[in-house]
Amino acid sequence: MSGRGSRAVLLAPWLVTAGFFLLWEAACRALALPIYFLPPPSVVFEAAWQFRGALWRNGLVTLWTTLAGFGLAVGFGILLGLFVGWSRAIYAGLYPVMIGFNSIPKVAVVPVLVLWFGIGEVPAILTAFLISFFPIVVNVATGLATTEPEVEDVLRALGARKLDIMLKVGIPRSLPYFFGSLKVAITLAFVGAVVSETVAANAGLGHLMLTAQANFQVPLVFAGLLALAVLGIVMYALFALLERRMTGWAFRSGQAGAVAV
User: CA-CA distance, 220 to 116, in Å (whole number)?
Assistant: First the structure.
């Protein structure tokens, strides 16, 4: 890629974001939309600066619960993914069960978690875990289960055991799937944590936005949404960088593509 093309790629996200905010601001001004309906970005940024302390404190709580739930999802997802991908029979048997579990709206599980663990950070951590482990399991299991039968036959003919095939071929082959799934899982973990915070928490950005909404502080609600977007983008970018560094060999182009579902 030429230097001019590289600069264009680097500047594109910033230019698109700036254009989005300018269009938002212009639309709010031109249509004379009331602040309680849709505040312009200038008012949102003003509220973010005014309540920067509260946003910072609650943002740290949300980040902590998200990363804690995400860490549990990574550990559990790897183990379950390896188990599900161990054989095609296990994959076929457990996959429908996982699909059914993932189809349950996680907001419906939050009251049960509150009943078990009370109001606080634990329901948020567990909700983040429940909503984010599925992509990891599916991608790890898919990477293992889709190993070419011809490769397995050749390795068995050379005396390799099932465990040897898994360690030498299956797991390395599933790494692009795994690291790609982390980008999806971390954003889902934020969703789970915030959903729980809006239902059963006394801190966090979800709780802050719920309180602001009850007090008709609409700009603060949008400031909380903006803070969540920034956190999500930063974490996504970190895991995208990790994916490029760990599995760059798996991609032909200079930009690693997403393989997660």
Answer: 32
**Measured distance CA(248)–CA(7) in Å, rounded:** 21
Q: Are residues 95 and 197 in the same domain?
A: yes
Claim to verify: residue 24 and residue 57 sit in the same structural domain: no
Per-residue pLDDT of the chain in tens (261 residues, 90 and over written 9): 556 667 777 788 888 888 999 999 999 989 888 888 889 999 999 999 999 999 999 999 999 999 999 999 999 988 888 888 777 777 777 778 888 877 888 788 888 888 888 888 889 999 999 999 888 888 888 777 766 666 666 667 766 676 666 666 667 777 888 888 888 899 899 998 998 988 878 888 999 999 998 888 899 999 999 999 999 899 988 888 888 887 766 655 544 444 444
Region of 120 (left: φ > 0; alpha: ψ -120 to 50; beta: rest) is left
Do 108 and 12 share a structural domain? no
Query: From the CB of residue 10, how many other CB atoms can be counted at a distance below 10 Å?
Result: 9
Q: What's the pTM value of the predicted model, to 2 decimals?
A: 0.81
In a shared domain, residues 4 and 49: no
Same domain assignment for residues 19 and 69: no
